[in-house]
Design goal:
With 194 residues, this protein is α+β, with helices and mostly antiparallel strands. The chain is built from one helix and 13 strands; from the N terminus they run αβββββββββββββ. The chain has a single domain, classed as Lipopolysaccharide (LPS) transport protein A like domain (lipopolysaccharide transport protein A fold).
Length: 194
């Protein structure tokens, strides 16, 4: 009889432990399923549309004028503007030989005019020259890049610094103003501009 009492106590204890485990599991499961999971949301913005890995091509009369890639783009319909981050633009005004590449931290594209205002760590390169500045404006209608910030220009025959600059992408004409300083190599002699 003593043996059956020990078995009954063991079975009762096992049943209580099993019941406690089941109760704990069911309560924990109920708590985790009732608690709403916080959804990961994109950065809050007033933009009507946000796009990652944005691509845009501007054409005129069937010819590609430029292509734009950006890490992100936010469209604001009230101003018809797109705010861009980490962008690169390839300008193709005449032919692939005259292409100009631009990279920058951020910019704003006007959807109606295709004009762009660009800022932050701007580097503009073509086959011969590299330009660095902190802000510039691109006019799509006239294909002109301009800046009112200091600009550094480097190439095989020139090192130049100026307060402002304008470049016509259609003919390559560049005009620099304000404290223009640099070196131009002509034949094998150096000429310094002050």
């Amino acid at each position: 009889m003593r043996r059956t009492t020990i078995i009954k106590i063991f079975l009762a204890g096992s049943a209580i432990v099993l019941l406690a485990c089941l109760l704990t599991f069911s309560l924990k499961y109920q708590i985790t399923t009732d608690t709403p999971q916080k959804q990961s949301t994109p950065d809050e913005t007033d933009a009507e549309l946000s796009i990652n890995r944005f691509h845009h091509t501007a054409t005129r009369e069937g010819k590609t004028q430029w292509t734009l890639n950006a890490a992100s783009a936010e469209f604001f319909s009230d101003s018809n503007r797109v705010r861009l981050t980490d962008l690169s633009v390839v300008f193709l005004p005449h032919s692939p030989q005259s292409k100009t590449n631009l990279t920058a931290d951020s910019g704003v594209l006007d959807v109606n005019t295709h004009d762009m205002s660009i800022s932050g760590n701007i580097i503009v390169k073509n086959r011969q020259y590299q330009l660095k500045t902190e802000s510039l404006h691109y006019s799509h209608e006239s294909h002109i890049i301009s800046t009112n910030k200091p600009v550094d220009i480097a190439g095989p025959a020139v090192q130049l610094r100026a307060d402002t600059m304008t470049v016509d992408l259609t003919d390559g004409h560049m005009e620099c103003k304000g404290h223009v300083k640099g070196t131009i190599i002509v034949s094998e002699s150096f000429q310094t501009i002050d």
